[in-house]
Amino acid sequence: MVKRKPKRNRAGNPPERSAVKSVLSRLGAIAGRLLVGLALCACLSAGLLAAYAAAASSSIFQVKRPLVSGTRHLSRLEVLSAAGIDSDSNLAQMQVNRIEDRVKRLPWVKDAVAQRRLPGILEILVTEYDPAHLAMVAGKLYFVSRNMDAFTPVKAHEGLPDLPVITGLTLGNLIRPTPGCLALLNAAAELMAALPPQEREAGGALSEIHLDEVWGLSLVYGSIGPTVRLGLKNYTSKLLRLGRVLDDLKARDELSRVQLIDLSHPKRTVVRF
Q1: Among the listed residues 80, 137, 89, 139, the one whose alpha carbon sits nearest the alpha carbon of residue 112
Q2: Contact, 72 vs 128, CB < 8 A?
């Protein structure tokens, strides 16, 4: 039997060896391209870093005009100080979200948005809480928003605003309110929405809202002597009943003798002399 010699290509090499060389050649070409790409990326990154370093140290991007808008109770200096902005601040180095988080920690701030305007302007838009009530807690007064959030204590130099005072809360209720306390706060917000504007606004006739997990909500007016107990729910209809009861007591000249008007029952009114 005659053995056949393996076929050889033009270069005189077997086809298997030629295929291996072809694959290796292709891999080498791909590796070369990858090395070139990596070198280009490294050069580009180095260029970007150099550009960032130049911008961060350049006086062109220094904050020349820090703007603050939307404040009524906070000063411009308080906001900029909380944001960490000074004469050396550079827009290229700033992280807007961190500035916003710092400003939001101020007592009066409900929300804050920071915007950069190249080359040298930073604007901080502040949304402050709108105080609608006061809360007497552990001998101190706190501002309370329309959503019943106690957001900051009243300072001595701020004076005492003429707003309805919420009583019956503890310091723990402000820090971590219980489900019962949250229900009372929600009920108080519902009651305030049902009251006529002339009573719930500053200077109105209403002076106190007392919260109690057993008796619900009670009102104290500056213009009338008795406490008005409303309980929970159905405040619109109860306030209408209160108006009729007060008219009847005034007509009989007995209002000055009344200590309590209890409207907590949906169909019964109790007047205690």
Answers
A1: 80
A2: yes
Kindly report, residue by residue over 9-66, the tens digit of the pLDDT: 555 555 555 555 565 566 556 655 665 565 555 555 554 444 444 444 556 668 788 8
> How far does Cα 67 stand from its chain's mean position?
21
Cβ atoms of residues 259 and 227 within 8 Å? yes
Nearest to 134 by CA among 63, 188, 64: 188
For residue 89, the 8-state DSSP code is -
Residue 147: how many CA atoms within 13 Å on its side-chain side? 5
CA angle, 63 as apex, 46 and 77 as ends, to 5°? Answer: 140
169: Cα separation from own chain's centroid = 23
- Decide: 140 and 153 in contact? Cβ < 8 Å: yes
| d(C-alpha 202, C-alpha 105), whole Å | 27
